[in-house]
Amino acid sequence: MKAEAAVQEMLDGQLRELHLPTIRSSYEEMARQAEQETLSYERYLLGLCERECQERRLRRIERLVRQSRLPLEKTFETFDLKRLPAKVARQVQSLREGDFVTRKENLLAFGKPGSGKTHLLCALAHALVQQGRRLYFTSCNFLVQELLLAKRDLKLSRVVKRLDGFEVVLIDDLGYVQQSREEMEVLFTLLAERYERGSVWLTSNLPFSKWESIFKDPMTTAAAIDRLVHHSVILELNLSSYRLEQAKKTTETAADAG
Ligand code: ADP
Ligand code: MG
Q1: pTM of the predicted model as reported, rounded to 2 decimal places
Q2: How far is the centre of ligand 1, averaged over its atoms, from the C-alpha of 134 (Å)?
Q3: What's the rounded Cα separation, in Å, for the pair 104 and 113?
Q4: DSSP-based three-state secondary structure for 108
Q5: Cα-to-centroid distance, 110 and ligand 1 (Å)
C-alpha cells in the first residue's frame, strides 16, 4: 500500500515537472477505466495524451481570443451572410481558410457606416483565431493614441515590435475622426514597418480618393495606399446601413400589425 502511495507521489511530481496537468489529474480515473475495459497499455497512454493535447488546444484558443481583444459577440453566428453582395460572399468563403494571412496579404473593407465592415472583419478574425492564428483588434483611434504615447516615451519601436507578434493587426475605422499630422505619422510608421511582414486588416468609410484628408499630404497618402494595396484583398460593401434596415423592418411590422 505504502509503495503505491509513493509511486503516486513520484508520478505527481514528475508530471508537474513535465507540465502535463491534464494527465496528472486524469491518469488515476482513466487507469481504473482502462482496467475495466481491459485496454492495452498503449491505448491507455493514447487516451491520456489525447486529453492533454485537447485541453492544451482549448487553452491556447482561449488565450488567443483574450489577446485578440476582439469584440466577443461579432462572429459569423450573429452575422447574416445573405446580406452580402454575391462577390463579397464568394471572397469571404475563401478568406475564411486563412491562406492569405500566411501570404501576409492585407484585407481592406470599404463601405458606408453601418454596412457591416467591422462585424464582418471581426467574424473573419474570430474564425481564424479558432484555427489558432494570432490576431489583434484595435480601433484606429485607440491605436494611434497608443502609438503617440509610445513615441513620446521613445518606445515606438517596442510597440511596433509587440504588434509584430501578431499575424494580423485589424485596425477598425480608419479616418473616422479627423486626425492630426502627428497622429497620422505614427500610423504611417506602423504601416510601413508591417509592409510585407504581417497582414493588416482595415475598415474605412472613406474611399482611397478621400484618404488625403487622413494622411494630410499627397506623398504620404500615396505611399500608404501603395503599401496597403500591393498585396491585398478589397471588400466593397455597397450596402445600406444594417441598423437602419432593421429599424425600418420593425416599424413596417408594427404598421402591418396595427
Ligand atoms: P460598419 O463597421 O460598416 O459601420 P458595423 O459592422 O458596425 O458597420 O455594423 C453596424 C451594426 O449592424 C452592428 O451592430 C452589426 O452587428 C450589425 N450588422 C451589420 N451587418 C450585419 C449583418 N450582415 N448581419 C448581422 N448584423 C449586422
Ligand atoms: Mg465600423
Answers
A1: 0.88
A2: 23
A3: 27
A4: strand
A5: 13
Indicate whether residue 115 lines ligand 1 (CB < 6 A): yes
Q: What is the separation of C-alpha 229 from the centre of its chain, rounded to a whole number of angstroms?
A: 20
Give the separation between CA 14 and CA 37, rounded to whole angstroms. Answer: 27
Helix (H) or strand (E) holding 171: strand 168-172
Give the CA count within 13 Å in the CB-facing half-sphere of 56: 11
What is the Cα–Cα distance from 107 to 100, expressed in whole angstroms? 9
- Report angle CA 80, 85, 90 to the nearest 5 degrees: 90
- Please give the chain's pLDDT, 258 residues, in tens: 568 899 999 999 999 999 999 999 999 999 999 999 999 999 999 999 999 999 999 999 999 999 999 999 999 999 999 999 999 999 999 999 999 999 999 999 999 999 999 999 999 999 999 999 999 999 999 999 999 999 999 999 999 999 999 999 999 999 755 667 788 889 889 999 898 899 999 999 999 998 888 888 889 889 999 999 999 999 999 888 888 888 888 887 777 765
**β-strand partners of 139:** 172
Any ligand 1 atom below 6 A from CB of 179: no
Beta bridge partners of 201: 107, 170
